[in-house]
Amino acid sequence: MSAVIGQPAPDFRLRELDGREHLLSEYRGRIVILNFWSCECPHSERADRSILEKMEAWGGAVFLLSIASNRNESLEALRIATVVRLLPLVLLDAEQQVADLYGAQTTPHLFVIDKPGFLRYRGALDDLTFRHRIPTRSYLVEAVEALLAGRLPPLSESPAYGCAIVREI
Length: 169
What we know:
- The protein is α+β, with helices and mostly antiparallel strands and 169 residues long.
- The chain contains four helices and nine strands, in the order βββαβαβαβββαβ.
- It has helices spanning 42-58, 75-84, 97-102, 139-148, and strands spanning 13-16, 21-23, 31-37, 62-68, 90-92, 106-107, 109-113, 119-123, 163-164.
- The radius of gyration is 15 Å and the shape is globular.
- The two termini are 27 Å apart.
């Protein structure tokens, strides 16, 4: 089963950096942001700052799961970046099973799941691109705030922008 907008988000089980297991289905009842993440990508670092800034305003209704799927990033590098960036949780997907399941291609590549567990948004953090250097629209904020208000996001998909997920070394 692969991730399809408007359908139940495929469940998965991944381990945290300290080895604890997490199931996506454990977070049902909250809005979940899946952030395919990199400790080396500057776009991921920018997304971390933006997302964490909003997480405080959203409170406990929204949960962030950062997923490290790059084969070339060491556990030590992931740990350091997690601490420096103040990330609450990073899950390991070194074999890219969850990245493949969701079709994640870049870091960041964001997926928003609503409280009942349906995938409602997939794509970029905002409208920043190589030619459009200053973002004017935050797709992630629009998606999450629409879901918090009981509405569907105004945009369900956008092209992801960032560093490619490293699948082989």
